[in-house]
Design brief:
Blueprint (H helix, E strand, L loop, with lengths): L12 H29 L4 H19 L1 H12 L6 H7 L11 H12 L3 H4 L2 E2 L5 E2 L3 E8 L2 E8 L3 H20 L3 H18 L2 H14 L6 E2 L12 E5 L6 H6 L4 H22 L1 E3 L7 E3 L5 E3 L5 E3 L2 H7 L5 H4 L2 H10 L9 H18 L7 E3 L2 H15 L2 H4 L9 H18 L3 E3 L4 H9 L3
Parallel strand pairs: 5-9
Antiparallel strand pairs: 1-3, 2-3, 3-4, 4-6, 7-10, 8-9, 11-12
Helix pairs in contact: 1-2, 1-7, 2-3, 2-4, 3-4, 7-8, 15-16
């Protein structure tokens, strides 16, 4: 079956707004059908409503590309926030969005590089190999050497701010996010999205991160080519390998899956605790899994730099001896903006107990020398999140809770945990020297 392509991507504010307004009308119709059926039959079929809304939202956002689709991609990974119908549908945005048509690919490449792809490469596939939220990838050749050419969708960088403004009402209606929460959330998202559209910055970060992490076992990186790249085109080595779902369909041995999981775990631990900067887009579309257990990392567009002060006040909570020190916990909870001086003692206790309960669950891999990641473990995180969401101050907060820096850090770790569970991996997870350093810092 031929994959549908797009000859044009809406770039004007009015054009993009009308697309989202039309989607809002479809969602309204879905709700009307839902309530009518519920009234007439007495059957509360929320799953059917979620499926209809998820399909309509994804269809609209996938045509718009860019920040609107990127938000869907992020929400697909934040499984505590969304019903499964949304997470499954939005997960398509990771590498299966409708691609640009061949004429649009050539025009977009030529505008950025000054030449057509055929003038630079001996061979250039006009059919994309993968299409996601910000750009799509094509295979090309010069002589015997094969390249991956990532081409950014036209108009994406210019539409980020207006897109996020348009997505806010939908997020409010569908996911119950307050205006205060969205302001904090979307400000951080906007900053990172603008970085992701800067391929010159991505080229620099890709070279830096791959050099800093090249000593890690079973992690491999492509070489990048600035002479063929530009602000909207990024050229790197073509790497063999499969995305996670396709890789698992080959029925690899558990030994290979554990080897892959260990490589990813060590990669993220080194970044976070030594570099204080992490590859913060850990969805399966950004990794290529090899039959021998190596992992190719192919996208450094989203790097979250972790401020030292946030690191020193957030990650100690993963360590039981610190988590059980009431005086230290009070300071940590205040600094990372979970509780505030104006909160009543009751609210402070509720929020502290809930946060520590979730942290205790998330820290289980760090509390033993090895850990087996299972879907039951992931489901327990979902269940705890749903339980905490019922707390009034969490469901309808009087002010936004949590440091903005936690957004991409949490997203990263939940993405890692989910991949580990998909691999059913049992690996070495005991914290290395970082745990002792934090205990010493807090005299625990």
């Amino acid at each position: 079956m031929t994959t549908p392509t797009q000859d044009k991507i809406p770039t004007g504010k009015v054009e993009r707004a009308l697309k989202l307004v039309g989607t809002g009308a479809k969602i309204g119709t879905n709700y009307l059908k839902y309530y009518t059926k519920k009234t007439l039959s007495g059957v509360d079929n929320k799953e059917e409503l979620h499926n209809s809304n998820a399909e309509d939202i994804y269809d609209s956002l996938s045509q718009l590309k860019g920040s609107a689709l990127k938000v869907a991609q992020m929400l697909s990974m934040d499984k505590n926030l969304l019903p499964r119908a949304y997470t499954q549908q939005f997960a398509l945005s990771q590498y299966s969005a409708p691609p640009m048509s061949a004429p649009l690919v050539i025009r977009t490449f030529q505008r950025s590089n000054g030449k057509s792809p055929q003038e630079i490469f001996d061979e250039f596939s006009l059919q994309s190999s993968a299409a996601a939220s910000i750009g799509q990838v094509h295979k090309a050749r010069i002589g015997e050497h094969w390249f991956a050419v990532k081409i950014q969708y036209p108009g994406i960088a210019d539409s980020i701010q207006s897109d996020l403004r348009l997505v806010k009402p939908m997020a409010n209606a569908m996911f119950g996010l307050s205006e205060k929460e969205m302001k904090k959330y979307f400000q951080e998202v906007e900053e990172k999205l603008l970085e992701e559209t800067n391929y010159t910055l991505e080229l620099k970060r890709s070279n830096e991160m791959s050099q800093q992490c090249k000593h890690l076992p079973n992690i491999i990186f492509p070489q990048y080519y600035p002479e063929y790249s530009s602000s909207k085109v990024l050229v790197m080595d073509w790497m063999q390998g499969l995305h996670l779902k396709e890789f698992l369909d080959t029925n690899p041995s558990q030994e290979v899956k554990n080897k892959i999981a260990q490589a990813l775990w060590d990669f993220y631990e080194f970044q976070l605790h030594h570099l204080k900067a992490i590859h913060a887009d850990p969805h399966p579309g950004n990794f290529l899994f090899q039959p021998d257990g190596r992992v190719g990392i192919i996208d450094f567009g989203c790097i979250k730099e972790v401020p030292e002060d946030f690191y020193l006040h957030y990650f100690p909570l993963l360590i039981p001896v610190i988590r059980n020190n009431e005086n230290v916990v009070d300071k940590l909870m205040s600094t990372i903006e979970i509780v505030f001086p104006a909160d009543s003692m009751e609210i402070k206790k509720q929020l502290t107990d809930a946060f520590l309960a979730m942290t205790a669950l998330l820290s289980r891999p760090f509390e033993s020398s090895t850990f087996h990641f299972t879907m039951d473990f992931i489901d327990s995180i979902y269940a705890k999140g749903e339980e905490i969401y019922q707390i009034p101050e969490v469901k309808k907060p009087t002010q936004p809770r949590g440091s903005k820096h936690a957004l991409y850090v949490n997203r990263t770790y939940f993405g890692i945990y989910s991949m580990m569970a998909d691999l059913n991996a049992e690996i070495n997870t005991a914290p290395k020297d970082w745990s002792d350093k934090l205990k010493n810092y807090w005299n625990c």
